[in-house]
Amino acid sequence: MLMSHLSLLAIFLPLLSLLSSSSSSSPAASAFTFSGVGPADEDNIESRRNHLYPEILRDEAVARLYQLGKVSDSDSHLERTFMSPAALRAGNLIRDWMEDAGLTAWVDQIGNVHGRFQGSNASAKALLIGSHLDTVIDAGIFDGSLGIISALSALKVLKSNGMLAQLKRPVEVIAFSDEEGVRFQSTFLGSAAVAGVLPVSALQITDKSGVTVQEALKENTVENKGESLLQLKYDPHSVWGYIELHIEQGPVLEFLGFPLGVVKGIAGQTRLKVTVRGSQGHAGTVPMSLRQDPMAASAELIMQLESLCKDPKSFLSFDSDCMDSMLESLSNSLVCTVGEISTWPSASNVIPGQVNFTVDLRAMDDLGRQAILYELSNRMYQICDRRSISCTIERKHDANAVASDSELTSQLKFAANSALKRMTGEIVEEVPVLMSGAGHDAMAMSHLTKVGMLFVRCRGGISHSPAEHVSDDDIWAAGLAILAFLETQM
């Protein structure tokens, strides 16, 4: 989900002021063009390009992204949800690419696709690299897929130059089966299982057709019972760390003129399902004054949500300095969205009997997020009571904010700088450090091991849309950064 431009700029204002003193023609801003080179430099530039593996890290990676982007359950748009036919085809394609990179590949009992190379010391703690293969409805082709393909491209480079066997620890790439939570409204099914935080009860969650997670797995020849789900958890002592590369899904990197950024943390998030029940009736015969209309009530509830999230300071008040800091954080980072709404019986001449809608609420401050949820619930119940409407609020998903590991963050920053230096031939400015308002598999994996993330610039900050776009050269930079990080593991 995209944060508003104002919220993003408020969060990163210190960073913007820090960078404002740099030249507008900074190496990062003009990177990847290889332009402005005189004839005497052409041989050197061509030599440098050959050592940047463009045929694998750019050309092949771009082709694979577009190929994977055509694997969809819909002919009119990209849609690939958990355990759908398209998700299975995508998994098979990724498995082939894992084997092409020299990895041993397999699919686990929640549908995650794994590819592993043991390195020179198979008993050492493993580096895990991952992202997700599922998409939202009417998606772009880079969200999730870029992280998987960039990692495989970097490993393929090591295979092609004979360096893969020099990895001092096992490296495993995981394409997680569900991060978006579209089908079952429960995010991180794939990564939460690997991290050991997916409860057995999750197997009984149903989709809109009444199919459970367990049934969806069984339909696709993946027999998963409670015991096998528990067996998916990785031993924390066998894992060294987890890194994830992902498109930014926001406009900050483009604003700053940098292709890559390092993520210092991820906002906490909560998903709610609100059910509003009233009195179903004839649209033409029930007077307005006698109606118990759940649709009108839902409209007021949604407007209350918007008011609260636009101006939390007007609804929450505390005395301590600590609480003042929390309110400031909420003012800069809180975002709330109603993304789905349905009615029953959904006919133009019938007053609905029931309305369901979702709420997605995110904030950098966990305590502040809980305070907002408490205030929101109280005010929603008050509105329903006043209207003589029944109202229930269910928490479908909760994830606390996650801080990236300082060691991994430093290493990823070095890798990003190294990649940009290789591409420009110059020492570039330090890459930006950002917070993520969107959730990622790293949130679930943080329960298993230390995590770190890299962001890649996307045009206009647009994501979860067919207009989502990453330039070919920024894809190249992403692959080079993962390659540089892997070279530190030799």
Automatic annotation (TrEMBL):
Record's catalysed reaction(s): allantoate + H2O + 2 H(+) = (S)-2-ureidoglycine + NH4(+) + CO2
Lipid biosynthesis is among the record's keywords: no
Ranges of residues in domain Peptidase M20 dimerisation: 268-376
GO biological process: purine nucleobase metabolic process
Signal peptide boundaries: 1-24
Cofactor: Mn(2+)
Annotated keywords: Endoplasmic reticulum, Hydrolase, Manganese, Metal-binding, Purine metabolism, Signal
A GO MF label: allantoate deiminase activity
Enzyme Commission number: 3.5.3.9
One cellular-component annotation, GO: endoplasmic reticulum
Subcellular location: Endoplasmic reticulum
InterPro entries the UniProt entry points to: Amidase_Cbmase, Bact_exopeptidase_dim_dom, Peptidase_M20, Peptidase_M20_dimer
Main localization (coarse): endoplasmic reticulum
Family, similarity comment: Belongs to the peptidase M20A family.
Alphabetized PANTHER family for the sequence: ALLANTOATE DEIMINASE-RELATED
NCBIfam families reported in the protein's UniProt record: hydantase
Subunit note: Homodimer.
Job description of the protein: Involved in the catabolism of purine nucleotides. Can use allantoate as substrate. The sequential activity of AAH, UGLYAH and UAH allows a complete purine breakdown without the intermediate generation of urea.
Name of the featured protein: allantoate deiminase
Species whose genome carries this gene: Turnera subulata
